[in-house]
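Before a colleague's protein record goes any further, I have to sign it off. What it holds is a sequence and that sequence's fold in token form. Would you go through it and say whether the fold makes sense for this chain? The record follows directly below this note.
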Amino acid sequence: MKRILLIDGNSLIFRAYYAQAYQGYTLTTSSGIPTNAVYSFANMITNLLKERQYYDVKVAFDKGKKTFRHDKLENYKAGRASTPDDLIKQFPIAREFLTSANIDWFELENYEADDLIGTMVKKAEKESPSFEIEIFSSDKDMFQLISNQTRIVTSEKGFISLFGIDELFDKYGISPSQIPDFKGLMGDSSDNLKGVEGVGPKTATKLIQDYNNLKGIYENIDLIKGGVKDKLIKDKESAFLCKEIATIDCEVKMESVEFKELEIDINKMINFLNKYEMKSLVSRLTGRANFINDKTNNAEMKPSIEFTYNLINDLDEEYWSEENYLYIETFEENYHKGKILSIVVVNDKGNFILNDWSNAIYFNKFLMSKQNKKIVFDLKKTWVLFDNHNLNYNQESFVCDLMVAMYILDSNLVSNLQNINVLFNKDLIPNDEEVYGKGVKKTFDIDNSIKYSYLICKTICLKESHYAMILKLKEKNQYELFANIEFPLIEVLYSIEKQGLHIDRKELEKQTLKTLKAIDHLEEKMLFILENKIPQNFNFASPKQIKELLFDTLELKSNKKNSTDRDSLEKLIGLHPIIEYLIEHRKLSKLYSTYLRGFEKFIFSDNKIHTILHQTLTNTGRLSSSDPNIQNISVKDDIQKEVRKIFVCEPNKKFLSFDYSQIELRVLAELGDETNLLDIFNTKRDVHDEAARLIFHLEENEKVDASQRRTAKIFNFGIIYGLSGYGLSNDLNVSILQANEYIQNYYKAFPKFENFKKELISIAKNEGYSQTISNRRRVINELNSPMAKIREFGKRIAVNMPIQGTAADILKVAMINIYKNIKLQNLPVAMVAQIHDEIIFEIPDKGYDHIIKIIEKDMKNAFIDLLKIIGVNQEVKVELEVNVSIGNNWLELK
């Protein structure tokens, strides 16, 4: 079979554009030409060609806004939003890319891309039964082109799947030839096609199944009963018009359509990418193009990487240097279970690959030598991998972590080595998948010359970017943040991970069995309520089956996308008794799969979990965790918080918790210089009560009721996360008018906040980023998005980032100072967890009063210390408060 790909160019470039827009990307050349859509367009096409190995590829575009369909319906597609200007400019560039790559593309006056693709499909099917045709498009009209030879190819979250005759019938219960009839009945709001008003997908499917097509439906109209008949009669003309417009013309006169073996023109494609300054794509796309062009038994072409290297059994002293770049290769994401696949050292003596590190005496001495400085990418992982192989090392000899440096320079970048390419807009290194393969095909067992050259390439990348990163940090006034906060924090996080948290296996088993019984009981109740409406083997954990149950079987009023997420289910409460049971079932199922049975795979032989604390994941500087994620265990939900009971101390120890009280509000008061809020905090009054008094104009002797306090609490935190009249009206169940009145009262109560927020947004718009007091930056591309919702999101980021980011930096300074004191004073205490604004320690169960005083002092002084670290000569006006609690397990900590 020869596989042919036909691409709906308009569909793909719109998809590419909005995929970038949702992420806030607004790529342009140095001369201001927008390229974000083309960047993603080129990336998507070449990735698709590499994944599916096509014989030939053709791309079709719409040409102009008017087609023969406008002659039939003047307002055809009239309801669509206008195409953004920066996307319009990229259509010719996308065509230029295809030409440069030697991919045929077509457009024709008076026709849409659908018609050109339909014509090419019929030509290919007629030309040869050996052609296997795939159409890449998000347009459901294309379903009518499906046949035994032709299928639709879809890509969701990186997974490619095919949609053919069987899949169409499973989803819609109709055949490809019935799609125009289906559209005739349903209409299509995106094309401004009315169809038959009031006829939805369920009714349309049944009518077509009963009478085959529109003609059959209207020939048997007297057999159809009730309101459906009236609707059909009323909109008969509209139904047939919609069908005619939805029918793809497969007989367009097209010249020069010839199916031939695809050969990507790599040199011209590289020239195109360089012309439009897409240098970070050059290596990736040329690697794919080599693969696409390779016809030798579909053997994968690896990138051409050639570096000289020495393969050695030990790192003798003659290979040591004052400055050394280390790269440790592993495939395990959870590095606590990771195995070292290779160790590379690059320095001014040469490029070295260590063949056998288990018996490398001099390499061990090298790691222990304080004089031989080491620079790595992901230092914490490097140390843990050394531990896994019983390699000793001197922590002080590791002087730089370029992963952390890259994160500070651009927190929007995913922290992998290849993104150094993006940071410097150069092609320093290919992607792992281009060398090792992707997914289940990923392997270290490849040609040694390619593998070793690639490993050297990675390590040389560290060497070439090291000083450039340090220079960038200094230019952006971020070096102190790196050197005095983020880099020292690595050792603290490493110690927490290595220490781990004990698990009470009996308690875990008890909660697991209890939750399973509760889930079974719920399912029995739901089966009884639904009686004969569902089969006994119905899967209540399947979103697809739940969707069909709610919106097809029970015919509940659906939301726009027939969503069954928690928010959507909560809006259906009261419409059917099953809804509340489903919500409870969802909660218990998540508890079981994520926090009970899900935790078991993370328990090590020492009966502990060793969560990974991610230092370079969030944009604000906050820490996050995984394997397992212990920061996501809710304390508000009575059932879920019971999970905390499985985390216990070692014998004769206790947990000691220090939790910052309302730290983000205190930072807001400080940065916004809001006198009223500062006064509330510094006189130790209840901030929510006092805010309520100011919002509702209460007298001194009037008591704040629970509802008023709740409203004030929503305001106090909403000011950080983007308060709006609409959102507040939903939260408080009041009118938007009333909500806006509350907002005005709040700003009168705290008069400096409104201008402070406006100032932060203005700075972010002008500078392109927002930053914390320690110069931690977040680039906010969202402020330039063509989509209003994303721009509003960008404004919320501009306000939230300086506050939440500064709070995160304060917590990090506290952790560093406490850790230093533990080491300096040799205290019998271990830091074992960091959860949001809380740090948890394991301490002896007696005589710990002096430990509490030391830790409390460091936490309360952390804001002052932060300013000293970054060299800001400014007095801190707000006092930080810390809540202290002690317990035998995590649940007991309050």
